[in-house]
């Protein structure tokens, strides 16, 4: 008897599928809470930018960002925040619009000392302010801008993970040189320049770039996988984010942890 046929492998548990299961009354709510908090810690940047685009002063936008993630951390809140609950990006966007309907009341409560704060999130926001990374963007449809910031963050997160892998092998400098090849736009002469800098044959540099692109693609898919509940949505989600980036590349910001 073929055990693999009798017991096909289960879909891998992602951070977001764990959260969705808990919201629907599943087991391990504590693990789900930690998974949701991890997602929040990674993806706070598009939320803050969205609120700033609504015209809120920076300090108020920071307070509302804190309040949003504190409320989202309560898994019961997820049951009331759909459509497309299976995608973290869509849930965050829908929930954020809902939150801002009573933003004035929420801000009054927060200013009276009625709100809590996530200390690490506060620290991250202050770091980005100090670097001048947080700013209002040009006018464009809200959902497009939100998805653009989201896509840019996913890309930066995958690149950061790849950089860390190079660093662990003692090749941080090598990654800095080949990184432009991973994001497009390289010229034939650039390989020659990179090879000269690295003191390697051009063919070796091309092989390094090829392997790095493959690994970068794997890391990118993993980042997106962590924000969907159904793996059947993976290719559509990646395609959507790539289309957003292709329409208008995003280079601002460095909020990757």
Largest sheet: none
Q: Structurally, how many domains make up the residues?
A: 1
Rg calculated over all Cα atoms: 21 Å
Distance between the termini: 47 Å
Strand/helix succession: HHHHHHHHHHHHHH
DSSP strand count: 0
Q: Stretches where pLDDT falls below 50 for ≥5 residues?
A: 1-11, 249-257
The number of helices is 14
Q: What is the percent of helical residues?
A: 55-70%
User: What proportion of the residues form beta strands (DSSP E)?
Assistant: under 5%
How does this structure look, described?
It is elongated and about 60 Å long. α11 (172-182) packs across α13 (202-225). The protein has one domain. It starts with a helix and ends in a 10-residue tail after the last helix. The chain has helices at residues 3-6, 15-23, 29-42, 44-53, 58-72, 75-78, 88-100, 103-111, 119-130, 142-168, 172-182, 188-198, 202-225, 234-247. The protein is an all-alpha fold.
Summarize the model shown.
The protein is an all-alpha fold and 257 residues long.
List strands and helices in order, with pairings.
Elements (H helix, E strand, L loop, with lengths): L2 H4 L8 H9 L5 H14 L1 H10 L4 H15 L2 H4 L9 H13 L2 H9 L7 H12 L11 H27 L3 H11 L5 H11 L3 H24 L8 H14 L10
Helix pairs in contact: 2-3, 4-5, 4-10, 5-8, 10-11, 10-13, 10-14, 11-13, 12-13
Structural key phrases:
69% helix; disordered C terminus; single chain; 257 residues; mainly alpha
